[in-house]
Amino acid sequence: MAAVLAACAGPTVTDGGYRAKTAGALQNISSALSTAKFTMRLEHDRQMAFALTDTSISQAESDASSAQSSWATRQPPSDAALKLHDAVQQPMQDAVSALQDLRIAYRNGDAQGIAKALDEIDKASDEVDKASQEASS
Amino acid sequence: VKFLRLALGVMTAIGGFVDVGNLVTSGITGARFGMALTWAIVIGTVGMTLYGEMAGRVAAVAKRPVFHVIRERLGVRASLVNLVAFVLLSLLTLAAEIGGVALVLEIVTGLNYLVWIPLVAALVWLVVWRMSFTLMENLFGFLGLCLLVYVVALFVLPTDWGSLWHGATHPWVPASEGHPMYLFYAVSLFGACLVPYQVIFFSSGGREEHWTAKSLPEMRVNALVGFPLGGLLSIAIMAAAAVVLRPEQIRVGHLSDVLLPVAHAVGPVGLVFAVVGFVAAMFAAACECTLSIGYSVGQFFGWGWGKDKPPRDKPRFHLVCLLAVVAAAAFVLTSLDPIAITLVSVVLGVAAVPLTYFPVLVVANDRDYMGERANRAWSNGLATLFLVLMVVTSVATIPLLLFTKAGQ
Lengths: 137, 408
Fold this sequence. Notes:
Number of strands of chain B: 0
Number of strands of chain A: 0
Largest interface: A-B, 30 and 33 residues
Oligomer: heterodimer
Radius of gyration of chain A: 16 Å
Radius of gyration of chain B: 20 Å
Number of helices of chain A: 5
Order of helices and strands of chain A: HHHHH
């Protein structure tokens, strides 16, 4: 019972609560981006083995996507919250897309695609960091 | 030969101490809090060592495993509540261990972990059914030592030992986390060290190996050296995550994340060791957990239990073990995240710990059972202090679980 209750998403009725949820989602997405970048660095340095790289970047994509979709189900409780929603929506989407591109390129063995996706991830990381600052301010 | 037996026992205790709970909680906390929660592992390990030694002593001197003691001291009704709580919690732990092994197989093969669950469950049951107790304990305990690759990683990495030591000895709450989250993860580390099934397994295992008062020195070395070294291994995993993942701002959410520090430090060879260590530690824990469920039910109802005789002589014990494996595998096959199951099981475990540990303390202190091997005043004092700490922690556990949404 406790475990089920702990897994439920609670309502977000205040601006502060919405801001905190947004910051939390951005933090999870930022971590997913960092995991993907770090994993690819290890892969490039031939430090990885088994299917660890594939598993790691797939899970990063899944984490970011899950954080975004869970955040997106929350209703902004005010105009200020709606403004924040509009400001962070695109960075979140860009991050998820970049991770998706990386996964597709890696599985296809597409070196150029990987390089391009890593550039997108770098840009998405910057955007997410800025959005995090906005959500935390 | 005696030294070799002792060394093997200690190695088994080290390998056996670490399971999916330790791997996950140490990885998560190292990446999120650095070394600021080392104290929780230290306290949990001291508690496990203290009560493990007591349970082993009761098994050797009073020749009673823990659940016999619980039924005798608490009465049938109260101990039935205890049994139900223990079995449900152990099923959750068993599900987490089976899911953990399947996740590692996904990392190795690239095939989704759900595909591996039936196979892992079947292997767990096969080992419980066919493999001798001593071989099972020694083989997986020994292979679990591959996790020492985390210690190697720390020496290969440009580790700032002074900073790690400072972090461990000057705990702080990171501003981004807040006190409830910090306490939730402290409880999870504490719970990962004090899993109730380990005490049941340690004491019932003592009966499986026919411990007597003469076995006490060997048992004590296992508990007093093996468990603390197992705790150190948990701290090494936390430190590796703190050194590698924290600066990269990577939060651990998967077992694969816990492998990244080893890949970074030691490369593919290190990963082979880590993967073998992960599988051995979690597979052994799955077998121990299954057996503990069988032991507890068998001991409660007074059935024949144990692996010292062929399964046909103890059909009910083996049937319970089989049902436990099937139920746990079915639970993970619902596709609930095994890492989330792990976190919930170690935290809920803390809530149930006093139920298992209290009767052990009572009997270890009872001269009718223990004669001159009863607890000394200092060990009673320390154990009572721990029991109070466990009760306080168990009361705080559920509110923390709900308030932090299981550490999200």
